[in-house]
Amino acid sequence: MTRVLIPTGALGLGFDRAALARGVAQRPDLIAVDGGSTDSGPHYLGTGTSKYSRGTVKAEWTALMEARAQARVPLVIGTAGTSGADAAVDWLVDITREIAAETGQRLRVAVLKSGQDGAAMAEALARGRITPLWPAPDISGELLMACTNIVALAGAEQIQAALATGADIVIAGRTTDTAIISALPLSQGCHSGGAWHGAKIGECGALATTNPSSGVILIAFDAEGFVVTPMGETACATPYTVSAHMLYENSDPYLLYEPGGHLDVTRARYVALDDRRVRVTGSEWVPSDRYTVKLEGARQAGFQTVSLALVREPRYVENIRAWCDDVRARCTEQALASVDGDFSLELRIIGADATLGPLDTGARIGSEVGVLSIVTAETEALSREVAKILNPYLLHHPLSDDEPTPTFAFPFSPAEMSRGAIYEFCLNHVLGLDDPMDAFRLSTLEIGA
To answer: Does residue 449 carry a pLDDT above 80?
Structure first.
């Protein structure tokens, strides 16, 4: 049997320290935690920076390093620093050094990097090694070279290689959420379908329980399947909560694709062992003929300046869509006549359909709306210039030319707020490998006192 303790869905989200202590007392063989995802958009991959507070990450990582020392087992994190870019991995390595120095720990750290060189990826594309998933944008060698960061998602094999170094801590770049959990039970001969399925259930900590905020969960893997045990006092795993997690971030509730194959849970059986634990058997791992890893890439997509105006006058609120259309048209016309360069101007009505736009067919408007303007341009100076042209329209533009000039509210002065460079995801592709380690770089460090 192999026990993997997962303290939270992502480092930086918080977890129940008492539940973590109960998990350590269960004598796990590994502590595994996810470090990020693409959920928060392309900025973090584009810049190689973390979404989460450094102070929060350090405090939580300190607690997990202490738990590792107490349990005397490896601690593994995947997708370090939110995006798993090489710079984000280095960021967490630096934090680990600080903690080791402050706590007097002497540690071996395995560092697995997932970053890809744009020129090498352009060559791989030319050789037919990069193929699209659906839906995928058209790509070229030039696009790959323009990416600020490209990462490959590591699977179980790369984490197994890192663990084989005898490391106390593994800090990995971009990985699949499941790889850091499935790697050890797979290497120790546990049921392969159960290893991947249990890893999927445990990827977000206690999300697959009745109390997701408790964070900590223990997955016990064996030769036939796995058992889910929440560590939070009030958290329970039920066949419903466990089986439902296959729907989380997954287009097919029965199939999950990973490097080297896919998981099929069509014949999985979920049995409540008691009012808190669930046992799962019958999951199947289906190896693929070709080993591929998913690629994620981000590139700079221009510069943005945003402004926010607040509208409360009932007639303007009632006619806010017509007002926005007129503001956009008049400002665009003036800007095209006075600036050089490409730009776009978008007005989102907050309080109506700012989230979904035209997809929100049931949008309702209240007594007040916010009009968020977004100017995107090829340079920061141009985006700010167009935003300044827009300023008087947002502040004073009337619904008709024959009425008194209105005044709306800017909550900030200046009204224009620069977002700087913005980024966009530009890859949804897989890279074929002859050897699972071909796209990854593994090194070890001795750190601490």
So the answer is: no
